[in-house]
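Q: Could you write out the predicted structure for this multi-component system? I'm mainly interested in how the pieces pack against one another.
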Amino acid sequence: MELITGAEILVRCLKEEGVEYLFGYPGGAVLHIYDALYVQEDVKHILVRHEQAALHAADGYSRACGKPGVALVTSGPGLTNAVTGIANAYMDSVPLVVFSGQVPTALIGNDAFQEVDAVGITRPCVKHNFLVRDIKNLAETIKKAFFIATTGRPGPVLIDLPKDVTIAKAEYHYPKKVKLRSYNPTIKGHAGQIRKAVDMILSAKRPIMYTGGGVILSDGSPELVELTQLLGYPITNTLMGLGAYPATDKQFIGMLGMHGTYEANMAMHDCDVLIAIGARFDDRVTGKIEKFCPHARIVHVDIDPSSISKNVQVDIPIVGSVPNVLRAMISVIRDEKLKPDTEALGKWWRQIDEWRGIKSLSYRQSNEIIKPQFVIQKLYEVTQGQAIITSDVGQHQMWAAQYYHFDRPRQWINSGGLGTMGFGLPAAMGAKFAFPDQDVACVTGDGSIQMMLQELATMKQYNTPVKIVNLNNGYLGMVRQWQEFFYQKRYCMTYFESLPDFVMLAEAYGHVGMRIDKPRDVEGALREAFAMKDRTVFLDFITDQTENVFPMIPSGGGQNEMLLAERDEMVSTHDEGMVLL
Amino acid sequence: MNNNNRHLISILLENEAGALSRVANLFSARGYNIESLTVAPTDDPTLSRLTLVTSGNEQVIEQIVKQLNKLIDVVKLIDLSETDAIERELMLIKTKANGEQRAEMKRLSDIFGGRILDVTDATYTIELTGDGEKLDNFLRAVERDAILEVVRSGATGIARGQKALHI
């Protein structure tokens, strides 16, 4: 009987789970684990420069390739730094397994050096968490963590490891399977409900498919495409769902929600049957709930029962995994040779095309000053729509979502739920680890990029060449936009009077830096940057400081109350809307 | 939409460290009401039985049930208010028992089926079991000044008939 240490057990378990990369940062409580990592080569440890980045990198890796992301941090500040990253993954349902060091069991609760109640702090932002007090439970707990993180509605799972547990020895046995009596997600949709849903879907005169991140997480894109094309219905994706349906297809009517297209939001408002798939009726999508889809009967497919009828009451709920349920729907339609109401559909499409004619994403081009939208359009052209795009949070995020047309799932990686500035750069690094041969670009702004800037060093160390597209307007643009519209242009704390020279900064980290301030140079710079396959290039685009994101549904507004660029006088929203953010 | 009904929810919970906090945390994080909560191990040492009283409209209660079921440590639950159920709560009450009050207090306790557990020359300690309403009625019947201390266990319950919550 071979006895090995807890640290060795951990590393062996990771190997058995097929973990390629472990993103982490060492410290006192995890020294034994780092020692066990030192003597093997299967699990590659990536040394980030801040624990939050370890989580975002693991997160970006997972979103890009679908496998769970794995991170390792030390106790105390290591864990607290990681919390933002854990919460970010939780909000966007990304499968992560996070290991945190903990003080020895005998010291727990004694306010020991670098002690923090990791399980307590993370409880509200994990799918589940464990404190392993006995080495005998270690391997099984790790198996459970991977199982819970990756099944059902995915999410982060944390395992807190007291130092003595990593030192103690036990026999190694990794269970092939675990069964949890209290956890058994429903995968297969209810046949009766599916049948009823199909009838409702086909009875529609003005249908719309509204699909979200759940389609991507469940790899349900092929089924979604098949069903949508079989029906011939218009489809809109949420911010998290972009790429699940090819954006260049004619049935795609753009993103919906606060900064969605005119046609998507108008079609949502006027639809008579709403087919919601793997989407959760987030407040950025619904606007004011009372005004949401006033004429619609609603079908909602989701693997998480608590997402159904949470914000909006639905008529036909179906709990199940997206590909599974959609396949069943497709079978019913094909087997029974059912057809949608083509006449009504033709009329509906004519209406939608009329809305499309408004061209709600148009903006006024300039020869003098770079428009941020123009940069994204050129980025799309130069990369031929094929790059993996990560983004930070703010105006640049919305422009990336609007102007880069994502044709495949897992191509668009952004912080949707938590809205974490600083996510983009480490996430891009994580995506690059998953797909070293693909172009990866991080669309960011001068505010967001400074939140995780230190990762430029990690990217140098591991040679993960990412193109950083910095839309530099000197402002915290999205906050400035709100101050302009709703706070009578009182720009409180949104202007950076001092910014670093990003070109020099990139060079200081060993990368290539470029500053671009003329519209005519945008395309050339992008081509030059993407031609440097093995270099990280920081493209600092000096953009229009006052550009705003349109269309916009002001808070408290309904989906048909959009403000369009150059058209609407922005009016101060009413008090209720202010509360709604 | 505003009829906030009282619900008695009974949960079989993994008997593990932190399981109770997960339930309590859920209620505070999502802003749900929690009126009372009792928890103790069951005949199966791996399981605890947790009973809580909450209130909300139909939609809120539906979300509470779904969110509870989503917790990995929740094995099974039943909303006892949706079924024919027995509800019981234990109350210990210490009262003044002086002069005329002494006989009156004893009578009142008898009427409510209480038991006097402890007696001093100036006090009674009474045990009373029943549903919440009965305990409230007893407290109303006792003169306000006579009450020295009240301890209530919080409601617990079980379904009537063959229906049983087990795994």
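A: Regarding packing and overall arrangement: The domain at 372-542 of chain A is CATH 3.40.50.970 (Rossmann fold).
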